[in-house]
Amino acid sequence: MTQGPLTTEAGAPVADNQNSETAGVGGPVLVQDQLLLEKLAHFNRERIPERVVHARGAGAYGTFTVTADVTPYTRAAFLSSVGKRTEVFLRVSTVAGNLGAADAVRDPRGWALKFYTEEGNYDLVGNNTPVFFIKDGIKFPDFIHTQKRDPYTGSQEPDNVWDFWGLSPEATHQVTWLFGDRGIPASYRHMNGYGSHTYQWNNEAGEVFWVKYHFKTDQGIRNLRAEDAAVLAGRDPDSHQRDLREAIERGEFPSWTVQVQIMPAADAATYRFNPFDLTKVWPHEDYPPVEIGRLELNRNPRNVFAEVEQSVFSPAHFVPGIGPSPDKMLQGRLFAYGDAHRYRVGVNADQLPVNRPHAVEANTYSRDGRLYDGRHDGAKNYEPNSFGGPYQTDRPLWSATAVAGVTGDHAAPSHAEDNDFVQAGDLYRLMSDDEKERLVANLAGAISGVSRDDIAERAIGNFRQADEDFGKRLEAAVRALRG
Fold it and tell me: What is the pLDDT, as a whole number, of residue 93?
């Protein structure tokens, strides 16, 4: 902001910003004091609706650099050559907490990455875990309601959390992740990120591949124990935001090695797990992760509200060579994310500086709406037209997916080794004895807070089905705490 006289929003110089205008000394304030009214009215409108989920977050700009040839798998221009660099913006966040919540809490972390490519913005929206609690978007509002404040008590209630999880055994895998050591990262720099969903890549020849993205932190994994996190959350609620900002200010630019798992499309139908089930991983022995690039964060936002709070991401923002999969959670998010930012920020949110394409100009027939900037001047607002307006390319961004059968409320197809517990059990058995002990203690502390025995028993039963030892140890721990 330039120096000089203070002005009103209309640019007129302000004579006095210390005293409101009154009818005489000590008299009532006058409605003609437009500076007073302008300031108060603007102040009343400074906040926009916070995100229902992922409200608490931090962000930074950086670069993505391609380190391996992936042109046999995708025709995306930003992935077209080794050494190619693309500007990015990453927003990381907690999920359940509101805008004023603490950072150092047990919660998944959102991982929303915007690539400003020459073919338009590509948004990759995932978490710091490779799986999620549910596999169908129709259950997302129900799930999030259990994580938010109860309509009667106004607090987050253990009964709601564990009643839902106990009745939703598909959540067992993600809950095991959440209550393990990685449930409370020490900072945003010391955690991995994941695309979580399965996405489509397609190459110039029209061949199709299914992929999963992994962002492996180059700083190493560091986590907080529950007792240390509780102290940090009370002492410095902004700990993770502060850590990321100050690291970049010091020139210690955090980075992640970017990997993908690649599945030929023909493998999907007979793979032992449903490859589009968000509650499952693809074991690395089946599809080993392949390094494709490096992500570095190296520039802080200049204004947190303008660039972090107003940043918007949508998994529907694809570019040529990349597209969606039949993952039912992803399909729901293709609508929900865009709908959320049109409600929160406005129908022109995609044209704010942080959100608009940086390497190409958006060329649409969309017009008007709140905060429209007139960028189209007097150009025609319909298509087709004969006045030189933008035209369709006739080439889809992604390849078509074959479908069969009849319409209906179908459950996701089950593959040979699919069930809700097998991968949770595999994860438990990968842990060391110390990790298992902390996992059981964390779970027992949370489950013991429920008001009814049947809710506790149902929750424990899911973990017992994942692994008999897991359930036995958890049952004993909960019993000891509940008496």
Answer: 98
